[in-house]
Amino acid sequence: MAQGQGRGSAVALGLALLCLLIHSEIAESATYTVGDTNGWTFNTDTWTRGKRFRAGDVLVFKYNPSAHNVVVVNAAGYRGCTTPRGSRVLSSGNDQVTLAKGTNYFICNFAGHCQSGMKIAATAV
């Protein structure tokens, strides 16, 4: 009789796990190339319009590293096109950044580039 109870418990546990898997949302991260085929360049500030980002999505910044860079900034750095102390500066020309929940801000801090629209704000839910 004890063996039948053990089998019943295993079946119940299996069904519970199956229900959990069926009802859980499986979220896969997406990868986006910033600026699409143009890459990370001037007038990219509107590139995020109409896109829905999720935390964990990856942004790929493709650019000529002798002409541009990518700086992860805060909201004030984004608005003022400034590089706050301690900002992460990327310069490989093929940088990948995983989005955190909330608004993620990026600029190019080469002189005049951010002011020419080389900045994005990507909000991830």
| Total domain count | 1
Q: Write the CATH architecture name.
A: Sandwich
Q: Report the CATH topology name.
A: Immunoglobulin-like
Strand/helix succession: HEEEHEEEE
Strand order of the largest sheet: 4-3-6-7
Total of DSSP H or I helical runs spanning 4+ residues: 2
> Considering the protein shown, what is the CATH homologous superfamily?
Cupredoxins -  blue copper proteins
Described by strand count, sense and barrel closure, the largest sheet is: 4 strands, antiparallel
Separation, N- and C-terminal Cα atoms: 51 Å
Helix-and-strand structural type: alpha+beta
Helix proportion range: 10-25%
Beta-strand share of residues? 25-35%
CATH class: Mainly Beta
Overall mean pLDDT: 88
- Oligomeric description of these chains: single chain
| Rg result | 22 Å
> Could you say which overall geometry the principal axes of the C-alpha atoms support?
elongated
Low-confidence parts lasting 5 or more residues at pLDDT below 50?
19-26
Description:
The chain is an alpha+beta fold and 125 residues long. It has helices spanning 2-23, 75-80, and strands at residues 31-33, 58-62, 70-73, 88-90, 94-98, 102-107, 119-124. The strands form two sheets. It has a four-stranded antiparallel sheet with strand order 4-3-6-7. A three-stranded mixed sheet has the order 1-2-5, with no helix packed on it. The radius of gyration is 22 Å and the shape is elongated. 23% of the residues are buried. The model is unreliable at 19-26 (pLDDT under 50).
